[in-house]
Amino acid sequence: MAGNVALELRNISKSFPGVKALDNVSFTVNEGEVHVLVGENGAGKSTLIKIINGMYTADEGEMYLFGEKITTHNPRYMKQKGVATIHQELNPVPDLTVAENIFLGRLPVNKFKKVDKKYMVREAQRLINELGFKYDANAIMRSLTVSDMQIIEIIKAISVNAKVIIMDEPTSSITEAEVAVLHEQIHRLKAMGISIIYISHKLDELKKVGDRLTILRDGQTISSHNIDDLTQDEIIAKMVGRKMDNIYPEKTAKVGEKLFEVKGLTSNKFHDVSFTLHKGEILGMSGLVGAGRTETARAIFGLDPYKSGEIILNGKQVKVKKVRDAINEGIIYLSEDRKLEGLVLIRSICENIGLPNLKRYSGFLLNKRKERKDAEEMREKLRIKTPNVDFPAQNLSGGNQQKVVIAKWLLQDPKVFIMDEPTRGIDVGAKYEIYKIMCDLAERGAGVIMISSELPEIIGVCDRTLVMAEGRVTGEVMREEFSQERIMSFALGGDLANG
Ligand SMILES: Nc1ncnc2c1ncn2[C@@H]1O[C@H](COP(=O)(O)OP(=O)(O)OP(=O)(O)O)[C@@H](O)[C@H]1O
Ligand SMILES: [Mg+2]
Questions:
Q1: Which atom of ligand 1 is nearest to the CA of 399?
Q2: Homologous superfamily of 258-497 in CATH?
Q3: Are 283 and 275 in contact (CB under 8 A)?
Q4: pLDDT at residue 498 in the model
Q5: Which of 129, 171, 338, 449 suits a disulfide with 342, CB 3.0-4.6 Å?
Q6: Closest Cα to atom 7, ligand 1: which residue?
C-alpha cells in the first residue's frame, strides 16, 4: 500500500491582491507517509493546504486525490473525500462541550431528529479514552488550555476516518509530553496507511516525525527530498535561500545592577513567586505549559489581579492595578495569545503598530508620518512579508501577524520586557532577528524575560533561567550550568524541589 500516490498537485498557482502566494507549485504525497512542508513565514504553506482542503480554489493547476482529478472545490466535498485539517489558528467553539466540538458539523441525530446527546457523549468519551487521553467529554471547551484544545482538534480529525490529515503547526503550543503523544498517534495513523502533511517551524522535530520533505520559498517549490537525505543546516539553507551561520546571535551586554524584583507574588494561580532581574539581563522562564508562567506575567502586567506580594522597579515599589500602570512604568508584556490579545485584524500593519504607541505620535495631530516611518522600520527589521504597511493584518501569514504584535510593543522602549513564547510559529531567520532585538534591548540597559517552552532557545540566549512548576518557582539555573536535563528536572520536580 505504501508508495502509492495519495495526493498530487501539479503546477498550482494562487494570487491574492498584490501577492502571488503560490507560483507553479507541484507536490506529491504518498500513502502512509508523513510529508513535512517547511518554509519561511509567508512562503505559502497555509495557502497550499487551503487549496488541498478546498477552502481556496487555485487560479491554475490540477489536483489529484488517489488518482482522481478534483474538479469540485469546497471544504465539505474535500472532507467527504477524506481530507481533514487541523488549522494553525484553532477554531474551537468555546461554549460547547468537548463532545460537541468533536462532532461539530456532523452532530448525530436520533429518530426524533434531535441531537442524540447521549450517543454523542458516549462516542466522544470512547474515542478520547481509546486514544489514551483523560478529557471529560462533557467539559466545556472554554475551560481547557490552548494545548488541550489542540489535542481535541487532533482527536476530531482522527475520528472522521480521514485518509489525508493536514496538520498546520500542530505542536506550536503543546507540551513535550503532548508532542510525544501526538507523534505516537501519527505513527499509528501511518501504519493504517493514512497520509499526513505536517507543517512546522520546529526544525528539530522534523526528522523525528517526517518521511519526506518539501521546501517552499516565496510561493515556489524549491525541492522535495527523503528526510534523511538532508542535514538540518541544508534544510535551513534551502528554506531561507542563504547560508545561516548561527541560529543564535552573540549577546554582548553584561548583566548589571538589579533592575526589577518580584517578591512573594501570589494569586489563586501561582504562589509566592519571587525573583530578580538585572539590567542587561535576559532571564528565561522555563517550565511545562501550564506551570503558571503566563499567569505570573499577566499579573505583573496588570491583566489579572494578585492577592499579595510586591513588584519593585529601580528600588521603588510599583502599584500595578491595570495595564496602563505597567506601561507607564515601562513594564511590557508580549502575550502568548497573539490572536486574541495582540491584533486588530481588520486594521493595517501600520495602525496596529501605532496603536499602543499613541502617546509617541500625539502632539496636536497624530503624527502619521512618524507612525509610518516606525512601521516601515519594523517591517524591515523583522522582515514582515507584505506588499506594504497598509496591508490589513488579517491577510498576513500567521507568523507575520506575530511579528506585527512584537513590533508594536518594541516601540515602547520598555525597561522590563516580558516576552511570552516570542518565537512560536516564527521561522528560523526571523527567530534570529527576535533574539537579536532582545540582545539589543539588553545592551540598552533593559531587562528581558523570555517565557519559553523551547529549551534550546532558553539555552541559546538566556543568562539565567527560572523554572516554574505547578504555580511555583522550583529552580534557577545559571548559564554556566545550563543543560536540558537540569532544567527539565526542575520543570518536572515541582513537588520535590519544594520538599
Ligand atoms: N487572504 C489573503 N489575502 C491577501 N494575501 C494573503 C491572504 N492569505 C495569505 N496571503 C499572503 O500569501 C502569502 C503566503 O501566506 P501563507 O499564509 O500561505 O504563508 P505561510 O507559509 O503559511 O506562513 P506562516 O509560516 O507565517 O504561517 C503571504 O504573503 C500572505 O500575506
Ligand atoms: Mg501558515
A1: 26
A2: P-loop containing nucleotide triphosphate hydrolases (3.40.50.300)
A3: yes
A4: 44
A5: 338
A6: 395
